[in-house]
Amino acid sequence: MANSRQQQAIETKNRLLKAAELVFLEHGFQNTTIRLINNKAETGHGTAYVYFKNKEDFLIKIMEDTMEQFTKIASIPFHPATSNEAYELVSNQVKLFLSLAIKKKELMKVFKEAIGVSKEVEARWQDIRDQFTASITKDIMYAQEYKLADSSLSPSLVARLWFYTNEMFMWEVIHESPSNDIEDIIKHMTTIYMKGLYSNPQQ
Q1: Is the distance from CB of 68 to CB of 106 less than 8 angstroms?
Q2: For 85, which of 13, 46, 80, 195 could close a Cys bridge (C-beta 3.0–4.6 Å)?
Q3: What are the tens digits of pLDDT across the range 23-38?
Q4: Whose CA is closest to 114, among 30, 11, 178, 14?
């Protein structure tokens, strides 16, 4: 009986999450209410509060699930033997990152809105940033260890600079058509990054 109740609880929570995503997409973050989510999920009044504290709690869970897909890109194995291999790997990661942002752009717009008005969502976004920069830092340290990258540079600082560059263009491509072609953006971002960090990019 307990297993049956647990399964029902999981199904209800998932139904609420799916409903919340639809409501956020339709109404935006600020205009979304728990009542709208309950109505969309066709659950009883107050059911949402059994599983989530507020609408921020809903959005954070959706944001975490969505950004997990981005995290998989950042976690692609990075073990280049040459600067040229590093260039190809970095370029591919940027392409996958921006392409996924475009694919998820309507949801990303909701995240951006929420980050701007909710301290709770903003704090969780900063945690996600930290996860990305930690992953990038490891890649830079690998490149420095194998004499591909400039060892005089701080891996963590370079990682932050690199992620913020990616983030800036991510917000740009989801809100409007960028002034440059995506492939052109990728080329310029990767080349500048490589020339700044790596000893002999594309050599």
Answers
A1: no
A2: 80
A3: 999 999 999 999 999 9
A4: 30
Q: How many CB atoms lie within 10 A of CB 81?
A: 9
Neighbours of 86 (CB within 10 A): 26
Residue type, 117: V
Task: Pull the structure tokens for residue 68.
Answer: 């997990």
Q: For residue 198, report the phi and psi dihedrals to the nearest 5 degrees.
A: -95, 150
> What's the CA gap between 185 and 172, in Å, rounded?
11
Position 92 pLDDT exceeds 90: yes
**What's the gap between Cα 140 and its chain centre?**
20
Domains in the chain, please, with CATH?
1-52 (1.10.10), 56-197 (1.10.357.10)
Return the structure tokens found at 122: 């903003």
3-state secondary structure of 28: coil
Q: Which residues pair with 198 in a beta bridge?
A: 149
* Interatomic CA distance for residues 80 and 89, integer angstroms: 8
Model pTM score? 0.90
